[in-house]
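Next up, sample data.

:::
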Amino acid sequence: MVVGMNIEMKNGMFKYGTGKTIFKNLNFNVNNGEILSILGPNGTGKTTLLKCLLGIHQISGGSVYINGLVQDKEKKNCHIGYVPQIHQSVFQYTVLEMVLMGRTRFIRRFSSPSHDDWNCARESLEKVGMAGFADRIFSDLSGGEKQMVLIARALASQADCIIFDEPTSALDYRNQYHVLDLMISLKREENLAIIMTTHQPEHAMYLSDKALLMDRDGNSCFGESDKVLSENNLNATYGMNIGIFSIPHNNAHLKAIIPLVSNPLHRSLSGNNSGNEVAS
């Protein structure tokens, strides 16, 4: 279990060479035991931001701090796990072998995985409810099952923080919430810091403690998810009418985020299936 973890970006800015600025003046933070959702239209730099946090790209301005230290100085003392969108393997790896890859940073060059490495891989599969799939071929699994295995691989790396890139994008409706519920469980039981990108504001509302909205003009809004994910902010970010409604359910009130659009081609004529207009 993670004892302490904090990732913070201050005045972050990124651009490719002398080209267009992808994002600017970006400020946010996430601690262990918290989930941060990053949202915005295509082209706002969400994936680029993840690559900066993973150390693949270097930010062009501002700073990234990990546990109060500049990112480069803290790399050896912490580890950020990564769960990509559905991964397609061309090799016939078993599920257990896929998870074992998460132990790579603990295995010395030209050495074989230790007994502890194999045990950690099995324990990680158990945590995501996939222990019975250890000997299955990864490429034969369904999309939801593959996503669970990739999460187990990140857990096997003993990450202090796990970054998810659109974790539900290729999943059916039920499996989307299965993955989201697992992320909530990992936050609570493993005390992890979790960062995810998503195109679904309702998913961010469902599980996030914090949210970061990014628009195409390079502007951003960060804070507690229930404050950031407001009708005004969502409408401005996505350029469409979006409503947030409170729905009573089991002595509680749930929030639903709904796009307020109507398509005349999809309207049904109430009380008439013949295609004729209903008389008023």
